[in-house]
Design goal:
Number of domains: 2
CATH class of the largest domain: Mainly Alpha
Helix content: 55-70%
Structural class: mainly alpha
Largest sheet: 3 strands, mixed
CATH architecture of the largest domain: Orthogonal Bundle
Radius of gyration: 20 Å
Order of helices and strands: HHHHHHEEHHHEHHHHH
CATH superfamily of the largest domain: Farnesyl Diphosphate Synthase
CATH topology of the largest domain: Farnesyl Diphosphate Synthase
Amino acid sequence: MTLVEAYRVCRGIAKREAKNFYYAFRVLPPHKRDAMCAVYAFMRRADDLADDEAVSVVERRRLMEEWMVAWRASRQPGSTSQDAVFLALADTQQRFGISDALLEELVQGTSMDLAESGAGTGVLVGAGLQGYRTFDEVYQYCYLVASVVGLVCIRIFGYSDARAEELAEKTGIAFQLTNILRDVKEDAERGRLYLPMDLMGKFSVLPEDVIALTAGRGIRANEQGLLRELSTKAWEYYGAAKMLLPLIDADSRAALWVLVEIYSGLLKRVDARNGDVFSQRARVPTMVKLAILGRGIEKSLVNRVMG
């Protein structure tokens, strides 16, 4: 397995699976695009192992640990691993200074729902749902599943101002809060609730209400208020993305811009439906994504010339 072949495998995984992320990859220079595909392929494999509901949690935990042992072994001097994702990722780590510790955190986030302690899905909050008591707990969840990804990405994008790290963390929070709002129904159907209980209490919303909404009951004013407040928090964190853009290398700014446009566009659609993510799933149409990509390509060309 050559590096060229390994990166080709990772590009194939990203093109097939990455959806929103792949639109951003397209406007990066080839060497950075390949690096993002390698990181994504690693994340995708971890996600697939963690989320395969055809396999018991105990078995998924075992498979995840075996896979991590194999990855850690591939990082040792003299390793003969022929795993395409591991090979491409190792090259990416060397090129862009991505530590094993960051990737361990990334997998920790992916694997939270498999934790024996139940830390991934918090506590039983009612109606058979596992959730979180406070927004601070939800923030920590978002940090592990999204902000760590952002901290990896900015190492590929390139930056010299240390403020970029804090801003990347907050940008990841904005993206994950957007995902949480979009996926309330789907998560509840899987026994998960990522709306913090302290915020739900403020609006007198119970876990049983989320189950009723998932089953088809119309959304009420207090439930709309709850989702609107979480959306407001997400918009506050999107402010960090605007501050981050000029801090990363010029040849990568268009990629971050594409991601922010797509994710913030998704949040706008949630807001436009007054939080009703139950009767119809919020999504950014493909044609809109392609239009954003087109503008991103223009920005990328201009930034590379100006940079």
